[in-house]
Amino acid sequence: MFTLIIVGTTLVLSVGALYKYMTANQGVFKKLGIDHPPTSWFFGNAGLAFQHGNFDLQKLMYKQYKDHKVYGWYDMRRPVMIIKDLDMAKDIFIKNFNNFVDRYQIFDADPPFKDNLLSLSGNHWKHVRAAISPVFSASKIKKMSGHIERNSKILLENLRQCQETGQEVELKDICSNFALDVIASTGFGLEINTQRDPKNKFAIEAKKVMNPNAAIITLIYFFPVVKTLLTALGIPVLSQRSLEYFAELIDQVIEDRKKEERMGTVNDFVDLVMRAEAESEQPSVKKLTRSEIHGQALAFILAGFETVSTVLSFTLFYLAMNPECCQKAQEEVDDNCGDKFPDYDEVQSLTYIDMCINESMRLAPPGFFNTRICVEDTVIHGVQIPKDMVVGVPVYAIHHDPDIYPEPEKFDPERFNSENKASRHPMAHLPFGHGPRSCIGMRLALLELKMVLVTILQQLTPVPCSNSVFPIQLSRMHLKATNGLWVKFIRRR
Ligand code: HEM
Question: May I ask which residue range the UniProt record assigns to the signal sequence (predicted)?
Fold first, then answer.
């Protein structure tokens, strides 16, 4: 009996403590006079995401709070202010940037990934961003074209083989292997050749980092305190072995280059960082530490591989499903590039291909929800945003707003001709984010996407096949087509 009382009391106290912990922040939006969906004590509003899936939910909430500038959202126990008003979003990302420098993340990264640009905050982020930015200047990116050309040609060869045997192609995997090869060569000068050998060590370790243990991530999402506990116990969240593999690989590449005196000849990230190290006599830009170099190299793999492969696969799929757009894109390629691989300047003149990529990223933006953290009480357009509040911009819902984009599910690259683009709010299209913390790899990504699209479209036409499922059905939580992105290729020449 006594044991039963002890167990019962402990249970009641534990549930009470859990209830208090989970509901501690509920009430924040009421105090601020901001509407939000009804909450449950444990999930806050997160239960709705499980019910509807990320994408339908974003659209649903956006419609429900149509006339609101902002609305509230409890991501479990964490209040997130959703910014619907595009002028407000612009002020947060640009004008008031200094109060919104940091991005919200579920957990802090562990070494050797700790000092990466994606998750750095405040002045540390500013210093690393300033040191790394020159690596992504137009002139430096231009020199990376050779790496893109080599890998685009391998992709074309693989697609040609599929075309010759009449094989249907699931685009995501094939584009993913291409994007990884480009990151390995533009990042580290490595020819890992995932397109021919998908099981190479670099690819296996990169995929492990990209796919962390789902159970641990879910646990941290429900109870952020779990991360603190794991850190105290020395247990990393991302595969430590994989992170160390990359850190050692980078060190090895740097040492080899120093020994062989090849600095300045390879035109990849490592090369440019080493040159920046040597040249950086300007006191304003301090050198990067080795830990910061590791962090950036890993950030480039994480940020530049899945994103590019998603955009490439969706763009090819949309072109296959919209033959008149594909034909127009091919005409532009023929007129501007003929049969040869395009150089940097030719790529800049491909306006229709650019429109197709933008339309594809509107429909399927890899960064479908963008966040910042408020570091100081701020009032924007009459809305009070308290210190530490996470603010989020519902990119996917904005991109599918019928008032901004009539017939939003239709693939229509003309939405991005110069006239239509100029008539829209600058924050109505946010595939690369906005402001000083927008995607640092945008130029490289666009160059890569355009070069590889030209290479494919010069020789092949993507068309629907028996496995194609269109309209695309997105997975509930990730930007992935549940039935894959299947096409067939027809030879042009
Ligand atoms: C089509 C491909 C890509 C898309 C759609 C994309 C999208 C994004 C988005 C939405 C952000 C957040 C921006 C913000 O918070 O305002 C971001 C940040 C970032 N991206 Fe990309 N990205 C792409 C390719 C790349 C590539 C190729 C690289 C590197 C080689 C890269 C490196 C980064 C880094 C390092 C950040 C963090 C920047 C910072 O916090 O200062 N991205 N990207």
Answer: 1-17
Best mutation site among 117, 176, 432, 434 for ligand 1 pocket (most ligand atoms within 8 Å of CB): 432
For residue 236, cis peptide bond before it (omega within 30 degrees of 0): no
| Mean pLDDT value across residues 19-31 | 91
pLDDT tens-digit series, residues 178-196: 999 999 998 888 899 999 9
* pLDDT one-digit tens code per residue, 311-326: 999 999 999 999 999 9
Tell me, in angstroms, the distance from the centre of ligand 1 to residue 439's CA.
3
Cα separation, 155 vs 364, in Å, equals: 23
- The answer to whether 132 touches 440, Cβ cutoff 8 Å, is yes
Distance CA 99, CA 377 (A): 8
Question: Which residue is it, tokens 């830990």?
Answer: 291
* Residue 93 near residue 100, CB atoms below 8 Å: yes
pLDDT tens digits, residue range 148-173? 999 999 999 999 999 999 999 999 99
Q: Are 360 and 399 in contact (CB under 8 A)?
A: no
**Could you tell me the strand order of the sheet in which 169-170 lies?**
169-170, 486-491, 460-463
Closest CA to 312 of 174, 209, 483, 181: 174
CB 144 within 8 A of CB 267: yes
Give the model confidence (pLDDT) of 59-76 as tens digits: 999 999 999 999 999 998
Q: Which residues contact 340 (CB under 8 A, 6 or more apart)?
A: none
Tokens of 189: 């000068």
- Determine the average pLDDT of the residues in 396-403: 98
Measured in angstroms, how far is the CA atom of residue 359 from the centroid of ligand 1?
Answer: 18
The CA-to-CA distance between both ends of the chain, in Å, stands at: 85
* Separation between Cα atoms, residue 399 and residue 347, nearest integer Å: 26
Structure tokens at 380: 């924007």
CA distance 364 to 382: 32
Does the annotation place 439 within a ligand binding site?
A: yes
Q: φ, ψ for residue 332 (rounded to 5)?
A: -65, -40
CA atoms lying within 13 Å on the CB side of residue 246: 33
Q: Locate tokens 């192609």: which residue? A: 169
Which residues have any ligand 1 atom within 6 Å of their CB?
103, 117-118, 129, 299-300, 303-304, 307-308, 311, 361, 366-367, 370, 431-434, 437-441, 444-445
